[in-house]
Amino acid sequence: MTNGVGDLALFGGPPAFDRTRVVGRPRIGDRARFLDRLDKVLDSGWFTHNGPLVQEFERKVAETAGVGHCVLVTSATTALELMLDAAGVTGEVIMPSMTFIATAHSARVRGLQPVFCDIDPVTGCIDPDEVERLITPRTTAIAGVHLWGQPCAVDRLQKIADANGLFLYFDAAQALGSTFEDTPVGSFGSAEVFSFHATKVVNSFEGGAVVTNDGELAEKIRLRHKFGMNASGVVCREGTNAKMTEACAAMGLTSLEALEDSIRANIDRHADYRAALAGTPGIEVVEFNPAHHNNHQYLIIKVDHAENGLRRDTLLDLLRAENVFAQRYFSPCCHQLEPYRTENPVVLPRTEALAEQVIALPTGHAITTEDVTTISELITRAAVNGTELTRRREAVGVS
Ligand SMILES: Cc1ncc(COP(=O)(O)O)c(C=O)c1O
């Protein structure tokens, strides 16, 4: 299987898979339970406005995260925006660039200036030493991102925030079910935000949550997510409409019930990939620090062009031609995208080096061990023939 590349789908051969294998195939959980919940919603006519399923999902997310309060909203992006508004954050927010663009945009649309910070090259998460270096009189907040489900250095970041009087929050969009040591992600900083987007380890079609132990902050967010109305329906201030629907909560609850099983499947596929790709030149399966638990929703490999001559984007194209829809999580990263790259150009060497190398592969319940074998064989073929592939691509003007 490792000889030659001419019969690959990229060059006109038949694809390895007849059905697409994707990153983050939605996990429904028990379909019958979901449909039963949905039926009850339809019968009750209570579709939205803090219905019983939203209330139950809020309780269960708070329990999973080990916090006192959860406010469900329509997406993690909205959750970040409402949380920043409710906390009254102004000025500059120090954050990593190695994240989804929503981390930055949610601050910018609130009138804040994201200040991009370099990363710990091992984890890819924000580097606390760099955070300290970037603090100015305009800094008011630090945003950590639990990249690929790994907790960032929550303890060191809290010390820096306390020493400098800064608001600390975490974009935990990818990290439900992960822990820092034995403490669940969700309880760190002043607030954390989860995403229940369809690709996440728990999904509610679309959805997000702010979790916090600060009851006052939770109430401020709750006001803002429903037109500024309090529990009695009196409008006390301006606000938006970011309420989660009962149909979304039905999916969220059902998907949450499958969380443990989803994580188990993710861990199993991670072991399959590790075994199948061991010894493949210039390909590293990213391992996570065993001091913490990871939800393993993200199976990340690094492609070392210097070692195998293979370009990361060539491998992506090659896999997609075979119906393996791998992703660049995250490349380009935030400071390389508009409006940030024009408004405030910065160089982040460790972020840029990592972003150039990473690929997220399909994993978990959506694929089988046999699928992993096939995908890994394709990757191995690409790595062994890296220089040849680069030459062929360059010959047709693709770099
Ligand atoms: C790190 C990170 N932050 C924020 C988001 C945005 O989440 P949502 O799509 O729920 O707004 C995502 C989703 O992909 C993410 O991965």
TrEMBL record:
One of its GO terms (molecular function) is transaminase activity. Keywords: Aminotransferase, Antibiotic biosynthesis, Pyridoxal phosphate, Transferase. InterPro entries: DegT/StrS_aminotransferase (IPR000653), PyrdxlP-dep_Trfase (IPR015424), PyrdxlP-dep_Trfase_major (IPR015421), PyrdxlP-dep_Trfase_small (IPR015422). CDD domains: AHBA_syn. Gene3D superfamilies: Aspartate Aminotransferase, domain 1, Type I PLP-dependent aspartate aminotransferase-like (Major domain). SUPFAM superfamilies: PLP-dependent transferases. It holds the Pfam family DegT_DnrJ_EryC1. Belongs to the DegT/DnrJ/EryC1 family. This is Aminotransferase class I/II-fold pyridoxal phosphate-dependent enzyme. It comes from Amycolatopsis minnesotensis. The lineage of its organism: Bacteria, Bacillati, Actinomycetota, Actinomycetes, Pseudonocardiales.
